[in-house]
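Example complex used in Figure S2.
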Amino acid sequence: MALYSEKVMDHFRNPRNVGVIEDADGIGEVGNPVCGDIMKIYLKINDEQVINDVKFETFGCGSAIASSSMATELIKGKPLSEALQLTNKAVTEALDGLPPHKLHCSVLAEEAIKSAVKDYYDKNGIEYDPADFPEDHDCEACHVH
Amino acid sequence: MFVYADNAATTAVSKNVLDAMVPIYTEVYGNPSSLYSVGQKAKEILEESRERIANILGAKPREIYFTSGGSEADNQAIVSAARFGEKKGKKHIISTKFEHHAVLHTLQALEKEGFEVTLLDVHENGVVTPEQVADAIREDTALVTIMYANNEIGTVQPIAEIGAICKEKGVLFHTDAVQAVSHIHINVVEQNIDMLSISAHKFHGPKGVGVLYARGGVALTNIINGGAQERGKRAGTENLAGIVGMTVALEDAVAHMDENNAKFEKLQDRLIEGLSKIPYSELNGDRNQRVKSNVNFCFEGIEGESLLLLLDDKGVAVSSGSACTSGSLDPSHVLLAIGRPHEVAHGSLRISLGEDATEEQVDYIIKSVTEVVEYLRSFSPFWADLKSGKRPHVFH
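Predicted assembly (541 residues):
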């Protein structure tokens, strides 16, 4: 079996929603160059709290790029409340699976979206339950033996 | 265009080699241990192969042991030296930080048994010096094991000089010559080598066969127990077709080594010059003291796995030392050993040319790599931060 599913390769080769939103309402960045992956998500959110547009930039491996692409597709046009429900599992399933050692890429995608939503809430003084937003995990830990 | 440029990983079996192997499978299929004619014919070919390989290495036939490949040869060489040293109370081994895992993991296993291992630092150019070895040798040093040429960055070590120091101090010296034997003329006597490992598939021989050279007088310990093959030091019916294929492959490689190296040198110059034009990129390993077919680069702001997958789409087969391709969380231990920071080591690319490589292919590699690096940087937030000065560049 190939390393990646056809779906992963499709999203890796033709990533959707690549780019920057200059006047983004929320920006989330997770990951670390030392670990080898960074994802940055830009959200454009309208008055009805719906994600009108989403773009991403990613530094990382094939599955990191594919996970970013799929995650942005899954939340585009959705209300924020729904975007916040997006799990790494949903991203992985939508990609027809990821190899076990690549699952963290889908986790990064989930965290990047949550981080962008949190940024939007913070900027607009909207109250939220901090429990909905995971702490940035310690990327330094991944290269310490 | 399809360009296979991962010859340090493995090579295609050549027609010459295959032609020599087929009759062994179909005609001389006897077991060399059998007494009837077809067995004895096999035995004759086995011993003739041993002699031909010994001749190439400047060794005696009885010093050549056939193994399943480079990893087995490395394992047996190191374990043998450890067992021999242990009997005399010598439980210290010297190696380097950028050895192949066949060496490093064997050493780790010995550490768990109570051996002490000194892994020498590797200089930024990917070379260890004889002085480092001399300084590290102790009264209780049982073995020095240092690779001849590095498998990732191709840097060539001063093996003859290191061997001379070991000889003078009475310490056994092993070298993993898997990446060197088809690129550098090796003579085990002149280069003071006590033990040496070779793998056939790196020079157009078949997979699953290799050689451990062990100088007469070096006591080998079995790691595969059973029958009395290989003078009782390596059990198992001999892989005769593989051995014959390896013999032909090695003879071909050595016969054409100088002309191949002259050709590689030009292509290597062209590749390095072309890839250096990519902004914020740098060659890994010494510019000159390297195997002529190897080029290894780091590119800032991108990750190696995505680079090589997109190159594969363009028909270019190469490899990377990124964490995602190493199957661990850390990038290549070789790149870290020569001082590359993690974030740069993730963006590495190894190109190892084959003898049939052309200028057109090299130009195609340069063009493809340039395009893919540029594309991946176009949406890399890491690259954006480097460009804006938010994060510092490593290269200039």
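The longest strand of chain A covers residues 37-45. Residues 140-145 of chain A have pLDDT under 50 and may be disordered.
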